[in-house]
Model the fold of this input.
Amino acid sequence: MFLYIKKNIFIFACLILTSSLFSQSSFENMKGKKQVKIPFDLVSNLIIIPVKLNGVELSFLLDTGVRETILFNVSRVDSLTLNNAKTFTVKGANDIEVKAIKSKNNFLEIGDLKSVAHDVYVAFNQNANLSSYLGEEIHGIIGYHLFKDFVVELSYSKRVIKVLKKGSYKKKWKNYASVDLTFSKGKPYAMAKIRGKELKLLLDTGMSDGVWMFEEDILSTLNYGYYEDFLGMSVSGEIFGKRSKIEQLNFAGETFKNVKISYPYEANLPKEIKYFRERAGSIGGELLKRFTIVMDYSNSKMYLRANSYLNDSFYYNKSGIILRQDGEAVDSNSNNELLKNLESDNFISFVDLTYLLSPEFIIDIVREGSPADLAGLQKNDVLLEVNGLKTFHFTLKKINRHFYDEDDTLVRLKIQRNEQVLKKEFMLKSPLKKLTK
Done:
């Protein structure tokens, strides 16, 4: 069966699939070069790479936290053919069921790398409203199948990936910190130390935050305080939790002070995470981007060298506003021929991002008691101007920068609420208190 996806069919998903769905999608170097360079965009600490799927140019998130290649958004792609497609049902957080597609034998290209028999997963979710918090158009996610076939060097500071054949080892890596990796279902784990305790953490380039922990550090939340916040999206809905800081984290030979940390509420977490007690949490892009990283999956090793981001502060949103970048209306999927009653116990989870349609900036969440809340801003207010400039001058990323500035910085907004145009202003305030002595 061939699946032809036409423009205006809105397809999206956030998948992390269990071993029962593992495929054998392998890559090879088309031109036999010693190394292949792949430029990337760094968006909200996430690595976005150009990918061709069956000849169609797309943008994918490079995510060490997923096993399978996932397609979730083709709303602005004119056409895309997926080969040998079959439908099945997957379960998400809170046991939400989503119809999905597995497509075999696709041709996938990343620069001079090719995979001629690549499995791709697509999910149809007609109930979840995954808004556009990232502000960039991303069509899918790729992870394990690229890393398993090569040695991969990620240079966050230069925005380039170098892909080398297995067994490669450069002399310069002798000066890098060497970290042992362990794997579970294709995902890499490493050890970090908090308050003298060694913890096993998932290395997740697909998470924009610095650190997520599943068990709250009571001493840190007492010292710094905490605030409840939106953390990300799942296929089943929004992920909420606490944000705080920890005094110190040791990782890859470096000591980080006053590290931003998030504690997702357990009710939001997929069962796979709840019952995998060996994993204490995740390290994401805001911390990983401080290194040049070499991933050598075949030897269970990672090599890291600090870069120019090493001593950057860990920033957080001081406004209390979470924006989404909404898009033009699209037709909901009604292709019932694709959505057969095929049942499976396969697992679907989450990543903390969502996806662009077209530029209109809307307030999606206002944190209670925040500066924005006290100024009278409300959910679904549409931003017209930021500090006197009309929003068409901005990307979502540039607007959000205004919310991460220094305390007592004035932010002036013009918004539209239904038929009214209103002006609001507030001063940025830290939601966390200083560390007590």
Remarks:
- The first helix runs from residue 144 to 147.
